[in-house]
Amino acid sequence: MEYLKLPLFWFLIAVNVGPMPAFYTPVIYMPSFATSMGRSGALPLEFYSAASIPSQIIGGMASDFMDCSWILFISCMTSSISVFFMWGFCKDFAMFCGFCTIYGLFAPCYTSLWHRFSMIIAPKNPRSASIINFFLASRGLANIITGPLSGQLLTTPTPSMKDYRGVINCCGALLLISSLGVGMRLFYGSAPEGSSKEEPYGMRTTSTDHWNHVTSKELRNRKEDSYEMNGL
Question: At a CB cut-off of 8 Å and minimum separation 6, what does 111 contact?
């Protein structure tokens, strides 16, 4: 639990709580917004869901080859731009479906970085994946906030397209603020004891390399324990 003392851990938790209300808000209102245009509410969700599949795959693969802080920045910034300009200035159903697709391509890839975050925070801990539980818990907290927050922004029982302006502005602003998560790079200097100072958290270590390192360490520990038992 040494990572609880690291500034980077708490910074990432804060960044994780920030975008989550904004992340789910467009998904919640996609069907009702499409209905306000007189179109099917299911089709935008289909575009979003289809786009979110390659989003998480590509995001996870990219994190093995580039600094995940930039992936976080690209994900939040592009999502914010799509909310402000594509959803905010939406004039027809085709443009709204385009927004759902772009949002699905960039917003969901953020959650695929959680495993990489855990490896950065505790690179030599064989149980570093347990850190993901904290990200899941913080996401749950954010989900609880999402309902009341979005409900206050949209109080009309049968909203028209212009009634979504408050939801769009709040969602886009939160995603824009979350793009500041690229500042996690400022905390790389507070690496755990024994970490490399040049690549503070094993930034260039892939998931496979991390697993091999952990497995080799466990095997060495078992051999040492075996030698001690034989010596007794």
Answer: 56, 139
Q: Where are the domains of the chain?
A: 2-231
**Domain 2-231 is in which class?**
mainly alpha
Distance CA(77)–CA(83), nearest Å, equals: 10
The answer to whether the CB of 46 falls within 8 A of the CB of 97 is no
Question: How many C-beta atoms surround the C-beta of residue 153 within 10 A?
Answer: 18
pLDDT per residue of the chain (232 residues) written in tens, 0 to 9: 677 778 888 888 888 876 677 888 888 889 999 998 889 889 999 999 999 999 989 988 888 888 888 888 999 899 999 999 999 999 899 999 999 999 999 988 888 888 888 888 877 776 777 788 888 888 888 778 777 777 787 777 778 888 888 889 988 998 888 888 877 777 665 544 444 343 344 444 555 555 455 455 554 555 455 544 555 5
Give the C-alpha separation, 120 to 192, whole Å: 10
- Residue 176: count other Cβ atoms within 10 Å of its Cβ: 18
Question: Does pTM top 0.90 for this prediction?
Answer: no
Cβ within 8 Å of residue 58, ≥6 positions away:
109
> How far is the C-alpha of 15 from the C-alpha of 100, rounded, in Å?
23
Spatial contact of 26 and 87, defined as CB atoms under 8 Å apart: yes
Distance between CA atoms of residues 149 and 19, nearest Å: 13
